[in-house]
Amino acid sequence: MRKTAIITGAGRGIGAEIAYRLSADGFNVALNDLNAEALAETAMKCKDFGITAACFPADVSSHDACEKMVKSIKENFGTIDVLVNNAGITRDGLLARMSEENYDLVVAVNQKSVFNMMKHVSAVMMKQRSGRIINVSSVAGLHGNAGQFNYSASKAAVIGMTKSAAKELGARGIAVNAIAPGFIQTPMTDALTDEQKAAILNLIAMKRYGTVDEIAGLVSFLAGKDSAYITGQVIEISGGLTI
């Protein structure tokens, strides 16, 4: 019986790449995103690996929506073995100018969604006495970032939640870890000016951006058998941004 992985924010970018990698690893995948069209494209590519892929468009900042989605995934797949909490947004701005609305929105999507999904999925995993939970944080959650007060707060909270959950769930055979990406090559970084790119690259020891497949590779490791004794860790993947 194939194992099942849930990936939130799987419609594009890092989430989609994680879905492809776990599909290549032989996982059936339950894909979540608000963008149903993008989600369908991801699912189609995942199916090329010979696995079962199903779409579950839902707002993961909603506790009730997550409860219904997890119940449906369990009924459809029979098991939930890996949860990747990848869904996230930015609404950048300086603290003095940040609106309450933009603070609350980022915290709801980036942080509360992790609580929602971990709560409902861990109930399934505890009965199975096995599972892997992988939370996508950020270097901003480790070190802060000017202009990203809300984003940094949400990602720092994810790290604390990861460590707490690892302590609570370890005895049930569930490993909980977080990854903290740095600057990853995406359409967002492609849009930067040459001066902005040079300034960023000057901070990175390896003098290049990371790639989405490198992030997916780390998730693959944490979801696989070789990481069975790793829990409560935050693995920075930033090319030496902060050393």
Task: List the secondary-structure elements in sequence, H or E.
Answer: EHEHEHEHEHHEHHHE
Low-confidence spans: none
Largest sheet at a glance? Answer: 7 strands, parallel
- Which structural category do the helix and sheet elements fall into? alpha/beta
| Strand arrangement, major sheet | 3-2-1-4-5-6-7
Number of helices: 9
- The beta-strand count equals 7
Per-chain topology:
Blueprint: E1 4-8, H1 13-24, E2 28-32, H2 36-47, E3 53-55, H3 63-77, E4 82-85, H4 100-128, E5 131-136, H5 139-143, H6 149-169, E6 174-181, H7 187-190, H8 194-203, H9 212-223, E7 234-237
Parallel strand pairs: 1-2, 1-4, 2-3, 4-5, 5-6, 6-7
In short:
This protein has 243 residues and is an alpha/beta fold.
Structure characterization notes:
With 243 residues, this protein is of the alpha/beta class. The chain has nine helices and seven strands, in the order E-H-E-H-E-H-E-H-E-H-H-E-H-H-H-E. Helix 2 links the parallel strand 2 and strand 3. It is globular.
Using brief descriptors, characterize the structure shown:
243 residues; 7-stranded parallel β-sheet; 9 helices
